[in-house]
């Protein structure tokens, strides 16, 4: 479950996805007591910063992502010494420094542990776990977001980071192809209405899943013309609770959070 984004993040809201153009700054101590100012100390120095937000317990994909990121960072640091920074945070503020530090050390990760990640997860549009965000440069740009993880994702991450350092990353090309996604009503009862604004003809797949990633329905639509695409999804069989609608459009993925209440 992912989307590659340059200077763009997806906010999970009931309305249209809102694009973020810059990183969310922080200036606070990490779990080892050292101060970090994201903009001033990290990004303004021309570094790339990798943020990983994880869920505790049985989040196997979070651990898998962490190990894949370690391998990727080692390779990138060989090419760009001292220019890669990484932070690990829990996706909820209740996951304090004891929890985050234990997760980092138990798994042998090198990311700096830092707590209180909940506001950042919301800002970057994360909802599936892990959520990985890559930031870069003095413009404090969002280079990439990844909601969920597969091992091949690091290929795209590495390519974008290398392109950033080479000065060949084209931000306008990706932003201009954005497809807006919304769901309503929220909360839903028996039906959920989906709306996509398509920039071009597309094959569209829509999944409805819970926050643990369990998929309840899949709907596929081929050769949908450019313009506004609307579809009603039956939610009468869903229990009350929080869910995510995932729209896949020609290889890009969009998310919108909704609840069911009766």
Your description of this structure?
The protein is of the alpha+beta class and 262 residues long. Strand 1 and strand 2 form a beta hairpin. The protein has a five-stranded mixed beta sheet. It has helices spanning 38-42, 60-79, 97-106, 118-123, 153-166, 171-175, and strands at 27-29, 35-37, 48-54, 84-90, 112-113, 131-136, 141-147, 180-184, 191-198, 202-210, 215-224, 227-234, 241-249, 252-260. It starts with 26 loop residues before the first strand and ends with a strand. It is built from six helices and 14 strands. The chain is 23% helix and 35% strand. The model is unreliable at 1-19 and 171-178 (pLDDT under 50).
Secondary structure: elements and pairs:
Elements: E1 27-29, E2 35-37, H1 38-42, E3 48-54, H2 60-79, E4 84-90, H3 97-106, E5 112-113, H4 118-123, E6 131-136, E7 141-147, H5 153-166, H6 171-175, E8 180-184, E9 191-198, E10 202-210, E11 215-224, E12 227-234, E13 241-249, E14 252-260
Parallel strand pairs: 3-4, 4-5
Antiparallel strand pairs: 1-2, 3-6, 6-7, 8-9, 9-12, 10-11, 10-13, 13-14
Helix pairs in contact: 2-5
List low-pLDDT spans.
1-19, 171-178
* Strand percent estimate: 35-45%
- Determine the fraction of residues in helical runs and give it as a percent range: 10-25%
Look at the helices and sheets and give the structural class: alpha+beta
Count of DSSP H/I helices: 6
Number of separate strands: 14
Compressed to H and E, one letter per element, the order equals: EEHEHEHEHEEHHEEEEEEE
Estimate the global geometry from the Cα principal axes: globular
């Amino acid at each position: 479950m992912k989307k590659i984004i340059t200077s763009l993040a997806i906010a999970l809201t009931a309305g249209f996805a809102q694009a973020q153009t810059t990183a969310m700054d922080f200036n606070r101590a990490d779990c080892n007591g050292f101060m970090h100012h994201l903009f001033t100390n990290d990004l303004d120095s021309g570094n790339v910063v990798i943020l990983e937000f994880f869920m505790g317990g049985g989040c196997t994909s979070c651990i898998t992502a962490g190990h894949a990121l370690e391998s990727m960072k080692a390779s990138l640091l060989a090419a760009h010494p001292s220019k890669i920074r990484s932070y690990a945070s829990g996706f909820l503020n209740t996951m304090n420094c004891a929890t985050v530090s234990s997760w980092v050390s138990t798994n042998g990760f090198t990311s700096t542990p830092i707590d209180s990640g909940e506001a950042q997860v919301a800002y970057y549009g994360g909802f599936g776990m892990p959520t990985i965000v890559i930031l870069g440069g003095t413009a404090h740009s969002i280079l990439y977001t990844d909601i969920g993880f597969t091992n091949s994702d690091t290929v795209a991450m590495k390519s974008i980071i290398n392109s950033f350092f080479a000065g060949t990353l084209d931000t306008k090309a990706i932003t201009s192809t954005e497809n807006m996604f919304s769901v309503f009503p929220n909360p839903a009862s028996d039906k959920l209405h989906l709306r996509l604004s398509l920039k071009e003809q597309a094959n569209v797949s829509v999944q409805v899943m819970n926050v643990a990633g369990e998929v309840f329905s899949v709907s596929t639509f081929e050769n949908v013309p450019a313009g506004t695409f609307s579809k009603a999804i039956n939610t009468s069989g869903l229990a009350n609770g929080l869910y995510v609608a995932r729209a896949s459009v020609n290889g890009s993925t969009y998310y919108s959070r909704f609840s069911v209440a009766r």
